[in-house]
Amino acid sequence: MCLGFGLALSGCLGASPWPLTVASEARYQYGDAPRWATAAADDASWSNVAIHALPDSAGVLWVRIDIDVPATETLGLLVAGAAAREVYWDGARLGATGHVGSSPGEEVPGPMDASFRVPDSLAAAGPHLLALRLSSFHRPDGANGLLLHIVAGEYRALLREPLYGIALPLVFLGAFVLIALYHGLLFTADRRWASLLTGARCLTMALLLVAEGWRVVIGYTYDWHVVRLRVIEALTWMTGVLVVATLAAQFVVPQGRALALGVATLLAVVLLASGSHEVGTFTVFAVAFALSAGVVGWAAFHRKPGARLAFSGVAVCLVALAVARFDFMEAALFPAFGVLLAGLLTNLGLQTRRQHQRHIATLATKARLEAELLRKHLHPHFLMNALTSIIEWVETDPQQGARALEALSSELQMLAEVSNQTVISMAYELALCRAHLDVMGYRKGNTFALATENVDMDAPIPPAVLHTLVENAITHNAYPEGRVTFVLCEERTDTHRALTFEAPLASASPAVRPERGGLRYVRAQLDECAPGRWSLDSGPESGAWVTRVLLPLDLKPISSR
C-alpha cells in the first residue's frame, strides 16, 4: 500500500516539462577581485576542473562556469555545496548563502542548498556566465566536494526537484515506525528475538529515512554536512547487521549470535576501509545482502518454512543494488527494502500463526493430561481397593483405618491441586510420592520409603512424573512384606538436570517391565513442559528397575508448590 501511494505521489509531482541544464566543468582561481564576476574578466590562466573536483579554499575562491540555458518561463538556478557563497549571473549578483570571508572568524556558514531566481532581463536562452565567490573554512574533514550540484532551468521545477528523490522514501517512514512499534509490543508478549530484531530493523530504517530527508525537508548549514553523512553511515551499518540478524533469528540459524557479531565486525571493517561515503554505504549493503542470501539459502536447503519467500526479497534487493549502484541509497533502497520487509513480515506472520496453532494444541494436550492424571488416580479399582482396606481397618483397628483414610485424602487432594499445572516444585512432587507410598503401605502391609540424594527441592518438574514411576513400581512388583526403599538421585551438567529413579525388582527376571504402561503419561508431561529438550531411558540394572530423566536447566524455577 505504501509503495503504491508513493508511486502515485511521485506521479502527481511529475517530471518538469522544462529541460534542466546541469553544469559539469568549471574554472577556478584563488584570490579576490570583484571584476571576476563579469564576462569581460580574463580567465584564460585559470585552472579547469570538474565541478565535483573543486579544491578546498584556503581563502576566498572564485569559480566561473559557462552555462547554455534553454528557454523557460522563469529561469532559476540551484547551487548546492559545502561552502559559503555569493552567486553572480552575467555579472549581476543574485544573492548569497552565509557570508564569504577571508578567515574562519569572518566567514558565516550558509545552507547546503539554495535556489535563486534569475531576473527576466538576464534569462534569455543561450550561453551565460555563472560566477561564484566561495569560502569553506568551516567545512569538516571528510566533506566530499566543495560544489556538489549546479542546475539551471525552470525556477518552479528547481524548487520541486529535491522532492522527487525523497517523496517515495518519506511515504515509508510512517509504515516503518508503526511496524517497529508493533513488533516491539509483540516482543513483550512472545519474547521472540525475531520480533525484537524486526522492530529494531524497521526503527533503524525509519531513522535512516529521517537522516536522508534531513537535507531536503529541514535543511542545514554546510558545516553539518559531514555529521549527517556519518549518521547515515552508522545507520547503514546497523541496518545491514539487523537484516542478517533478523533472518538468522527467523530461521533459527545455528550460532546465530556469533553470526551477528561476526557480521557486525565485518561490516564495520568494510565501512571504515572505504574511501568515500558513497562507496562505503554501497559496499555495506552489498555485503549485507550477500550474507543474507547465504542465510536464506541455508534455510531453503534445510526446508525451513518461508525461506523461498525471504530469498525472493533478498534477490530483489541484490538486483536493485546492481542496477542502481552508487545511487542505490537515494533511488532504490527504500522500495527494495519494502519488498524484502513485506516478505519477511509475511513469513513472521505465518510463524506467529503456527505458534498460535501449537499453543492451541498445547492447551488441548494439557487438558488431556489433566484428565489422564485424575483418571489414573481416581480409577474405581484403585479407590475400591483402598476403601475396602480402610473399611476392614475401621472394624478391626480404627486408628489404623483413620490413618489410612487420612493418607488417601491427602494424596487425592494433592493430585487435584497439581492436575492443572505445567510444573511444580520437586518438594511438592516428593510429598505427593510419599503420600501415595503411605496409602500403598497401608494396603499391602509394607513399609515403603523414598530416599533422595543431592535433589534440589526448589527445582521444577512436571506434576506426577515421579509419582507415576513410584505407582508403577508398586503395581508391577509383588513385594514381600517388609521395608522397600526407592532411591532418587540428581546430577547436573551445564545445561541439564539428570534424575535417576531406582525401584528394586521383586523378581530378578529382566523381562519384567514394571513401568511400561505409565511411561506414555510421563513422556507426554515432559514434552509439554520442555518440547524436544528432554530424554527418558528405562530398564533393568543389577536387580533394580532404573529410569533416567534428563530435563533442561532453564525450566521456570518454582519457589513453592
What distinguishing features does this structure have?
52% helix, 561 residues, disordered N terminus, Heat Shock Protein 90, 6-stranded antiparallel beta sheet, 17 strands, alpha+beta, 5-stranded mixed beta sheet, Jelly Rolls, 14 helices, rod-shaped
Give an account of the 3D structure.
52% of the residues lie in helices and 20% in strands. The protein has helices at residues 2-13, 155-190, 193-218, 225-250, 256-273, 277-301, 307-324, 328-331, 333-377, 380-396, 398-418, 426-444, 465-475, 519-529, and strands at residues 20-22, 25-30, 47-50, 61-69, 75-81, 84-89, 92-97, 113-117, 126-135, 147-154, 424-425, 447-453, 460-461, 483-492, 496-504, 535-541, 544-552. The longest helix is centred in the middle third of the chain and has 45 residues, at 333-377. The two termini are 52 Å apart. By secondary structure, it is of the alpha+beta class. It has three domains: 19-159, Jelly Rolls, CATH 2.60.120; 192-358; 386-552, Heat Shock Protein 90 (2-Layer Sandwich). The chain has 14 helices and 17 strands.
